[in-house]
Structures
1.
Amino acid sequence: MKRAAGAGLLAIAVAAGVVSGVHLAHDRAAVTSYSGPPMPASFTASDGAAYRRLAVIYLTDPAHPSAALTLTVGSAPVDLMGSCGLPGSGALTGVEVNGKIVTAIQCQDPPQLIGLPVHPGQKIRITFTSATRLGLPIRQDLRTTWQFAAYSWQPPATARPAPAAPRLPRMFSGRNTTTGHGSALQKLVASRSGTWPGDRTATFTLTFHGHDYGIATICAGLIGGRLQVSQETPGSPEGEAIPCTQAGPGELDNVGGDLSGSNGARITLTFHIRAPSTYFAADWAKRPASWTIAIYEEQ
């Protein structure tokens, strides 16, 4: 399964008193000239989760291309929110947790939420770094200011109904993986849908007919793009989990050429849908989502 490096602009929320030891650090002097809307001190998400802000930090790209927050995680999940002065520009900022890149925040309006893979009591250093420093695909002449906030959140007391599962087209024009350039017709051959947290697996058995198969994993709901999906085949270890693609515009951009095999060969694939953090699985289970996993054959 393939996904773009940019995971979209993300917001993360928190509840009071669940994260302690917050302090700020950054590569250069703090930037305070950001002129966009301030990050809210607290808010309630559309699925009922209650967020409270822990800390805010700024950076100016390219003058001050890096900034960092250090937190000690408490008893609630931690999310991030990012906002910049050029929505729609395609500007990106990479996010590292304890030195490991976990996602990239894209400048867009409105901001979206992103969850961090953390556990209670863990000390984390969250570093935000300009995409130009990380070598991510981005225009080199963009100059913008960013505002980032860390939040903790509490789930609603009662989970709300999940949104309808994403409905994917029977055919679409996607990337041609046979020639490596141009486009090719992609035809739907199988799909499974479910609602989170009740439905967490989907299994497919496929026969190759001389064409590549592409995989689409699409999730709906406020946390849809933060659920993790892994893939396994009999006799092989389970693959690394990657974020589900948020339902909406561009949801099929990365489908195509994920599976290939000799003509007549059969393969069984099992997909697992999980929360971003096993330590906070009970919190994530109270936030509804739905998913559709579809297999397309390149024509």
2.
Amino acid sequence: MAFHVRSRVNCPERVVISSDDDTFNVSQTGFSQFTCNLPTPVLDPQRCQVIRTSIPNIQLQIPDYQLVFWYYSLATASTVPDAASLRAIRLFPSYYQTPTSVITYTPTVNRYFTGPADLVTALNLAAGAGGDSATNNPYWVSGDITFAYSTTTKRITFTGNTIGRFYCPAGYNDALVQAAVARLDILCPTYPAAATTFVQPQLFQYPLNLRVGYAMSGNSLGQASFSNGLTTYANSVNVPIAQGTAVASDSYPCLVYTNVVYLYTNFSQGSSLTSGNRHNLLCAVPVTVDSLVVNSYVPSTEALMTKLSQTINQITIEMRDSADQPYLLPDSATVDVEVFFGYDTPNNKRM
């Protein structure tokens, strides 16, 4: 194997990469990756491992791409769901600014939630009269459903309010939901004039339903259905529920933004692979703190990567969440990643 002509200064065992040293993000708002130039290149590293990370968890509990709750309002208990029966309640993204011109409703914006009951308060504002506009959200019907939280069961439910209708949640893998997401027809009036709009951010298979506690796919039988019912009725009994009766959720509220922050880099080609077929993974950092707290991580085991670039002049760190979406932080946040590098000398002695 050929070795570069190198000195001890080109063989650091510990390299600290700080997002504060990035020079490429100054023209952007926030960052999910950063690139640092190394004044002294790292030459011929043979092994590496993350030994410490410090990542501020400056996130709300619910991502801005996961703010639409989908459900069906049906004419009878046996009506097969179709596009006309699909309904949606949405929260606006956290960065949304209400237009200064007069609009006919009060947007409910994604924010910090103190718990499930607080989330229910926001959902009911969004679902109630004056909470949205059928012009900007064609799936919204004013006052059609009401949410509730039980401190006894620790679950959120919703109840249909329109007399004679039957209700059920739509599954996260529902084809009709997928088609609705693809239509890009849930809109947000822009600040300051509301004359134009931008599309409500959504990610298929990540509806707000999952956060509320309706976690079924729409393709599976519920635990309480006993092999009866239609799987498109994505509740535990696979049966739509009559107006005035709460639709039971099949799981509990989830107010955790992401389980891990995946760190990808530009110098570890071939050393790692995820089940989503992404390469160049440097580390998966567990998130063990609440929102608005610094998340620190020190690996407890040795897991060296050995397929590395042999000349490292520049290091890029990319951060992504559990849904493989950019883990976006404000410019006020500082991310530090400390990496160990190991070397073999030409006579195969390790250093």
